[in-house]
Amino acid sequence: MKNRLFTVIPCYNEEEVLSETARRLRKKYTALMQSGQIAKDSRIAFVNDGSSDRTWQIICDLHAQDPVFTGIDLSRNRGHQNALIAGLLTVKAHADMVISMDADLQDDIDAMDEMIEKYHEGCDIVYGVRNSRKKDSFFKRTTAEAFYRLMNRLGAKTVFNHADYRLMSRRALDGLAQFREVNLFLRGLVPMIGYRTDTVLYERHERFAGESKYPLKKMLSFAFEGITSLSTKPIRMISALGFLLFFISILMSIIFIVEFFLGQTVSGWASLIVSIWAIGGLLMLAIGVVGEYIGKIYMEVKDRPRFLIARFLEEEDEHEE
Ligand code: UDP
Ligand code: MG
């Protein structure tokens, strides 16, 4: 069988949206199965990322009612990116293609048709790309844009306006599994896999219900994680800055020596204090950035597991049979 599709959906406290997401996906699956685009034993896999509400209960109920729904329960909350990779790597052995999407119905389910078409044409990775960000708040739109510009400048290439809504073939997932890093930023990693890729445009909707699980603080740390886990350019920029400052200080000393012999006194301690503070600040910043990378190395060297799985409903069924 070559068309078995798994849709992986990380869920963190999504009890308000889950049944509606399940209903709409079930409808889409029925249509896709009827037209022969996907295999009859395809699955919709919800990943419960340590929710504290009824999310896991709802997933279990869905699974009991309809075998198209399955669930993966993580041992605790590990964050969106880890929940996503946990889902992808867990279903990999069962699927021919996997689509990842958010639970909140922001990703347009109808874009799946085109993704699957492109898979049948031989694509290994199909990115869902938003055609506009009109529905996002002005703040989210401008900060996100600035962030992706900065990322690309710093050499961490990502697909513009692509969140984690994408299709990947089994082969691409096998590739992804070989990227062992703990500091995970999937949007930057997936383009490194290669193979034949394409994009599908879709309209991004508003969150169906509930609130965003990405408050500003989490968004900033996500952005920081993205830059430092994909690029070492900030370290190089610090070296360049240090070199520049050193060069300026040599120029200044030459000027002062000349002035000394010309009999002009060097006056004003204000400029002195300012430069001491400026350079002190820059030094601290520089140490901070370097420290950030050392911290990253520390975490990678430990090689801790990125996730632990408490239950996978699909496999439990197979054991029972
Ligand atoms: N999510 C998760 N673990 C977390 C935070 C979020 O699995 O710790 C999931 C969440 O349930 C949703 C997806 O990640 O399916 C995207 O989160 P959200 O929609 O809140 O982010 P936004 O769209 O506001 O950026
Ligand atoms: Mg969302």
TrEMBL record:
Please give the SUPFAM superfamilies that the UniProt record associates with this protein: Nucleotide-diphospho-sugar transferases
Q: Which GO terms describe its molecular function?
A: glycosyltransferase activity
Secretion signal span: none
Lipid bilayer topology: Multi-pass membrane protein
**Chain segments annotated as transmembrane:** 240-262, 268-294
A GO cellular component term found in this entry reads: plasma membrane
Against PANTHER family, the record matches this protein to: PROPHAGE BACTOPRENOL GLUCOSYL TRANSFERASE HOMOLOG, UNDECAPRENYL-PHOSPHATE 4-DEOXY-4-FORMAMIDO-L-ARABINOSE TRANSFERASE-RELATED
Recorded protein name is: Glycosyltransferase family 2 protein
